[in-house]
Every structure is written in structure tokens, then in C-alpha cells.
Amino acid sequence: MLVNHLSKGFKLPHQRYSTLKERALHPFSRSGSETLNALHDVTFGVESGEFFGIVGRNGSGKSTLLKCLAGIYGVDRGSIEIHGRVSPFIELGVGFNPDLTARDNVVINAIMLGLTRREARRRFDEIIAFAELEDFVDLKLKNYSSGMAVRLGFSVAIQVDAELVLIDEVLAVGDAAFQRKCFDEFERMRAKGRTILFVTHDMAAVERFCDRAMLLERGRILEIGPPDEIALRYNEVNFRRAISEGSLPAGLLGGEARVRSVWCENDRGERIVIQQRADRCTVVLEIVVSKALENPVFAVVFRNDVRHTIFVATSLLSGHTGRFEPGEQVTVRFSFENRLAPRRYTLTPTIGIWDPEYRQLDQREDLAALIVEAPMQSGGVVDLPTEVQVTRA
Fold it and tell me: Taking Cα atoms as reference points, which of 144, 209, 137 lies closest to residue 171?
């Protein structure tokens, strides 16, 4: 696949009249417009069989690019060369008719993606089984939850034998079990040599799956390279943008230290994004020090899918951390027996210092993620080891 000098813009009217009454009340008014350049001179290539990540802040042009590749949007300038069939999973609910049942939507969408009617019906049971919607096949989609709809859409997209698969934020919706299914499916598609373009905000997933990645900012390519380098660059862009927009807490503008990266490891020192409950987990925090610091506080906050703080790994409970000089690169490891309940957690690393009140030096929201799995769960936010004793009167 080759994208050459691609540009795409949208006209935004300054004022829009949607009813006859509004037009009658303002017969002589003229509405001007301006052009939003969603993509500007984008050029890149993806090799056959490559897992290619596309990352960037909200509004950077990621989804617009995928829609151009899928043929949903026309392009203003440039060209796109794709050899083979394309299977897009781009946006929650796109291509589905909410007034039809899942049964009808699966067949219609599979045919739209290139399967014959016979193939669509033959693969129907497998699609429904992957989405775990056997009990809801005759329910209209307007009565589906967002998680159910995204499972159905992804299941259809992966059943099409396409050479190029476009995936946009499939991990943003759905529970931990479905996200694990997605990870397993990514591994299967890689093994089959399928070409995949993967848009996500999850840098841990980019580093795990992608062969290369591309960073977009305001419709332009900032950098293309190895996934770990792009993940670091993405975090730096987010941090600088947060400063310019004034969205960082007071105290983060001093630049004494900054977080470079955070990830989880298993007991063999391998990076992980999925772990079984009760296994040993190590959270690794990489930091760069710019000014001399005395006993900074390092921490990583674990939040669940509804943004509740479940666990904080912190150096505050372990005493002094020591003195750090400008230019030092520091690695902090927090190890613990993982008793978190099965679900997906996001990791937010922070650096702070007492001088004399606590002041935050850096904070990176949801910089990484961890999916915890277990065969059973108690229903609580953690599953602590418990001794049970039952006696009879």
C-alpha cells in the first residue's frame, strides 16, 4: 500500500440554517465558510504483511486517513494505491442499520465487505460466536449496548479474507475478555501475513504488536519509526500540548523531571499488557531529571474502566528515594503480587516532591494499560487471599 501526498479538507460553514423558518427570518444573510485541513501532504508506505500503527492526539487526522483509505471519503489531492481487498473496522456502528436485527446486519455488512451471500451465511455462526452474542441475534441493533455493537462489528471485519485490515480504536470499547480476544486475533492475523493498519491511543498495544508506527499531529506526519520511539514521541507531544493549553496542574511547568515511559513486566522481565491474577507484576517507570532533586516521590496510579482509582504503587511508603542530579536517567520498579480483579486498567505515572508542601512535577494520564485475567472473580475491585472456615453448630 502506498499513500502519496494525500490531502483532505472539510468546509465548515460559519452559520447554518436547517429550517425554512430560519431562512425566512434571515433572507439576506450570507454564510461564509472556512476550510479545515484534516490531512496535509501525507506520504507513507506499508509493506505487505506489516502491522502498522497510526497514533496521534484527538483531531490529528487518524480516523480521516482510515476513511480515505477505505473509500468512505474522497481525497482533495494525492493518491492511494492499494492492492487487494480492504476490510475496515473504522467507527462504532458505521454500516449497521439500527432497525435491523444482528442476523440481518451481519449478512448485509459481510456482503458489503466482499463476501458472497452464501459465504456470509456460512460464516454467520462463527461471527456470532466470536462476538458472544448467540442470545441476541434476533434483537434489533438499536437495543444493543455500545460494547455489544463493537464486538459484532469487529467480528464481521475479521471474517472477511481481506489483504488489508483497517482497525480504529477497537480496544476503546469492550470488556477485558473481549480485548484479550482482540489481542489473540491480532496475533493470528500477523501469523497469516495480513497487512494491518491499527489506530489507537494505547501505546502499550502499539509497542507489542506493531512493526512500525506513524505519529500524526494536526494532519501532518511528525515521525515514522520503531514503535517504542513513536510511543515516546507521542508522549512528548501530548505533554507539550498540555502545557500550551494550560491543562496541566500548577507546578508541572518547572521542568525538574519528566516521565519518559511506563510499562508492566512479568517475573521473567518481559513486557506485558495481559496478566493472570496472582502472578508477580512489576511496573517500570522511566524518568529524566532536568534539575537537582532531593527525595522525589514516584508513583503509578491504576484506574479501572470507569475511572476509579483502584491501586497506587508509590515510593512514598518506602522512605527516601535519594538525590538526583540534572541529566540523570532513572528507572523505578514497583513489584507486587497482582490481586487486581479481572478487567482493564490504565496506568498514570506521576512525579512529585515536598518543598515544603507536595508539588507535582509531571503526570501522564493513561500512559499504558494492563488487562488482568482470572477464571473467576468475587465482584470486588481486588481479590485478596482469604482463609475460609466453616463450622457446624
Answer: 209
- Helix crossing, 124-131 with 102-112: angle to 10°? 120
Q: Which among 193, 249, 231, 176 has a CA at the least distance from the CA of 366?
A: 231
How would you write 76-126 as a 3-class SS string?
A: CEEEEECCCCEEEECCCCCCCCCCCEHHHHHHHHHHHCCCCHHHHHHCHHH
> Residues 91, 108, 185, CA angle at the centre, nearest 5°?
55
Question: Do 96 and 141 meet the contact criterion of CB atoms below 8 Å apart?
Answer: yes
Instruction: Give the other-Cβ count within 10 Å of 377's Cβ.
Output: 13
Contacts of 74 (CB under 8 A, 6+ apart): 68
- Please list the alpha-helical segments (H only) found in the chain: 20-25, 62-70, 102-112, 117-122, 124-131, 146-159, 176-191, 203-209, 227-244
Distance CA 196, CA 192 (A): 11
Tell the residue number behind the cell numbers 433572507, with chain if given: 27
Q: How many CB atoms lie within 10 A of CB 321?
A: 17
User: b vs e for 11-34, b when ≥16 Cβ sit within 10 Å of the residue's Cβ?
Assistant: eeeeeeeeeeeeeeeeeeeeeeee
Read off the pLDDT of residues 49-103 as tens digits, 9 standing for 90 and up.
Answer: 999 999 998 889 998 999 999 888 999 999 999 988 888 877 655 668 889 998 8
Residue 41 has pLDDT above 90, yes or no: yes
* DSSP 8-state secondary structure symbol assigned to residue 342: S
Please choose, from the candidates 367, 360, 326, the residue with its C-alpha nearest in 3D space to the C-alpha of residue 254.
360
Q: Scan for cell 523505578, then name that residue.
A: 332
Q: pTM for this one?
A: 0.71
At position 260, the amino acid (one-letter code) is R
**Is pLDDT above 60 for 218?**
yes
Q: Is the CB of residue 351 less than 8 Å from the CB of residue 297?
A: yes
C-alpha cell at 4: 502519496
Least Cα distance to 208 among 218, 216, 198 occurs for 198
